[in-house]
Write a sequence for this structure.
């Protein structure tokens, strides 16, 4: 009489366990993960694949106030024709919405579903911003907004500060012109165009959309309501400045390692 012993990995036991659960239970489990985790799990087993298409899962990844935010957009009518919440989620990730009269842009971070905003240049308070002698507001076709600044800073130290009003404000020294030393390095590997380089240094770095960006600072949102965020860029030297085009200020979640 011959007997055989079946070797099974711990992973196969886990999938067997999930396969025995009702789809509704798997949906509840996926709702407690992240969009990235749900997509990854859907490629591993059919029980996850089916549950990961559920509207209940993708609705849980959308912000609670997403309908209110979408209604603030001129494109709100186009957001009501999606066949599923998953399709809506990825549309809000890949196609930022102009809201509040075109002065702000809203989208979702694809990995986590967290909110991201960009304040257009016209939404910022700029000293003498309405004086043509000092600032102009041209329209560039590659911009999501209609107007941007066209005078700025050149090769000078600039102080940036970010924080919640009434709480700790972080400050740092940055430069708003490109690091010329990088242009002298030739055989250095270049980052792919669809991914932004690290922007936590003192000089601007190229983004995937070919704009340059630099981190002005960071703040912690403890979940409170009606908090005022203060962001400032200052340089007090009395000299003329020029050559800077501002698309806006982007507010997004800090990348997790």
């Amino acid at each position: 009489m011959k007997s055989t012993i079946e070797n099974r990995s711990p992973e196969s036991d886990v999938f067997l366990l999930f396969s025995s659960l009702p789809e509704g239970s798997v949906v509840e489990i996926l709702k407690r993960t992240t969009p990235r985790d749900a997509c990854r799990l859907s490629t591993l087993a059919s029980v996850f694949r089916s549950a990961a298409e559920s509207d209940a899962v993708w609705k849980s990844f959308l912000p609670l106030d997403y309908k209110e935010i979408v209604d603030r957009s001129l494109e709100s009518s186009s957001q009501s024709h999606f066949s599923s919440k998953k399709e809506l989620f990825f549309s809000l990730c890949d196609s930022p919405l102009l809201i509040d009269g075109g002065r702000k842009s809203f989208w979702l971070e694809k990995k986590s579903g967290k909110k991201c905003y960009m304040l257009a240049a016209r939404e910022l308070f700029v000293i003498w911003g309405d004086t043509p002698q000092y600032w102009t507001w041209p329209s560039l076709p590659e911009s999501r907004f209609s107007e941007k600044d066209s005078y700025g800073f050149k090769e000078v130290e600039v102080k940036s500060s970010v924080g919640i009003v009434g709480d700790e404000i972080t400050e740092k020294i940055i430069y708003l012109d490109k690091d010329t030393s990088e242009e002298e390095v030739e055989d250095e590997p270049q980052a792919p165009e669809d991914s932004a380089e690290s922007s936590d240094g003192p000089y601007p770095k190229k983004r995937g959309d070919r704009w340059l960006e630099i981190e002005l600072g960071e703040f912690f949102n403890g979940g409170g309501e009606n908090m005022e965020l203060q962001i400032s860029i200052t340089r007090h030297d009395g000299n003329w400045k020029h050559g800077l085009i501002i698309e806006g200020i982007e507010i997004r979640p800090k990348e997790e390692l």
Q: What stands out?
A: DSSP finds eight helices and nine strands in the chain. The first helix runs from residue 10 to 19. The longest strand covers residues 157-164. Residues 184-199 have pLDDT under 50 and may be disordered.
